[in-house]
Description:
By secondary structure, the protein is of the alpha+beta class. The chain is built from 4 helices and 2 strands. The protein has helices at 24-30, 36-42, 55-60, 73-76, and strands spanning 9-11, 14-16. Strand 1 and strand 2 (14-16) form a beta hairpin. The N and C termini lie far apart (92 Å).
Amino acid sequence: MDQLIGEGHESRGLPLSCFASVSPKLLHNCLGHPSLAKLKLMVSSLNKLSTLDCESCQLGKYVRSTFPNQISEDQAE
Length: 77
């Protein structure tokens, strides 16, 4: 005899087991720091989000300055 133990929901043809409220920043971190445009494609409820500040992403865009190959005699003194 089959027994009903609960009811579920379906989204885009896939069953959902639960609903959770997660911050956009946490989603961004857990999904590997995708761009805001990619994140909006994955999560439609974020379409109204205009910016996503991520310190790790900003630090990853930094470039270091190059060092001169030789030091001139004037600089050595």
